[in-house]
Amino acid sequence: YLPANKLTLDATLWVEKGRPYLVYCGEWLNDMNGTVEKIALKPDFSGTVGEGQVLFRASDSPWSREKDKDGHDRPNKVTDGPFVFQTKTGRLGMLWTSWVYDVYTQGVAYSTSNTLAGPWVQEPAPITPPNYGHAMLFRTFEGQTLMALHSHRDEHGRYIRVPRLFEVDLSGDKLVIGRVYQP
After folding, report:
1. Residue 2 belongs to a domain
2. Which partner for 49 in 16, 40, 119, 149 could form a disulfide, CB atoms 3.0-4.6 Å apart?
3. Rounded to an integer, what distance in angstroms lies between the CA atom of residue 134 and that of residue 136?
4. 148-170 tens-digit pLDDT
C-alpha cells in the first residue's frame, strides 16, 4: 500500500467525503526531515491510487527541536504516529509525535481548510506533559473521549513503553487535554 521505494511507518485510516486515505509518516532517514503524508485508497481498500502527498514536515513544528553535533539548536527531523480527528465544531486536527531534544513529545496540527490537503498549522507547544507520544483518540462504551498514548522508562537497561489514558474535550475548536483518566 505504501511506497516501496521509501521508508514509511505508522499508517492510519481517514475517510474524507467518502474517500478513504492512508495517513502515514515518511521516515526521516529518507531525506533527514520526516514527513506526514496521505495517499488515496481504492474504494474497496484493495490498494492505493496515485502518489503520496506531503502534508507537513517535522521541521514545520516550532516545538520539535534537537541539537546538532556542534550543540546548535535546530528543528528535529522525526515524525511518528499520526492520528487524524475532528472536533465537534468540524475542525480537522492531527496528533503526531516527535522529540524535544531527548524527550518523546506529543503535538497537534490543525488544517486551515478542514481537509487533509491542508495547509496544516502546528500548535506552538506540545499538548501533553513530557515523555508522551503516539496518541490516538477513542470513545469509551459510555461515550467519553479518551486519548491513549505511551511514555517510556528505562528498567535495568530495557526500554519499556508505558501506556496511559488522558481525558480529552473535543467540544470546541481545539483538542483540550484533561487529567489522567482514572476508571
Report:
1. no
2. 40
3. 7
4. 999 988 899 998 999 999 999 99
